[in-house]
Design brief:
Oligomer: single chain
Number of helices: 3
Strand content: under 5%
Largest sheet: none
């Protein structure tokens, strides 16, 4: 890896219900892939961009579609 090390940390989830194991697995995989993409990008991607790209590649991001209001007549 480069000089920038990103390691996802544990966050306080006080007051929130625990995530189901399936959701934790997806979140962990997303985090791993995003960290790898970010590290390999040599500064060309922000961590937010790496997460978005990883989600897209995993199929977790829903496609953007226009609504009837935007489509016009």
């Amino acid at each position: 890896m480069t000089g920038h090390e990103f390691t996802p940390g544990l966050r306080s989830r006080k007051g929130r219900a625990p995530m189901p194991p399936e959701v934790q697995a997806v979140a962990g995989e997303l985090s791993r892939r995003a960290a790898q993409m970010w590290a390999e990008s040599d500064g060309e991607l922000s961590i937010a961009e790496a997460v978005e790209l990883a989600a897209f590649r995993m199929g977790a991001e829903t496609p953007q579609t226009s609504t009837d209001d935007e489509a016009g007549p």
